[in-house]
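User:
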Amino acid sequence: MTISEVSRLYNISADTLRYYEKAGMIPPVGRTDGGIRDYGEADCSWVELAICLRSAGLSVEAIAEYVRLSLEGEDTITPRLLLLKEQRELLMGKYEKMRLAMERLDYKILKYEQAQKSGVLEW
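Assistant: Predicted structure:
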């Protein structure tokens, strides 16, 4: 697949795909004889993973480190596992903050809905 096809498939820009590759968030993509990026199934899997991890809030550096370790082979299973566990813990912290914010918003919404019905805002 060309970069424009992959761009359309995942609804991200070609510039973003180039950045992912340059930053090490995906392994280098194969090229045609003419030097055009030629994304295969494995490349698309890496793109999907990068999109997923970025949307979950992982840093570019953490994703690039994971890719680097993956490319080194099975000797890096333990460091990859540790990296993923560490990132999961960071995400859990963010998730907890988000959960608390949602609870507070829900409370505020409830109070305003009650005020709409009764004409009185009580906290």
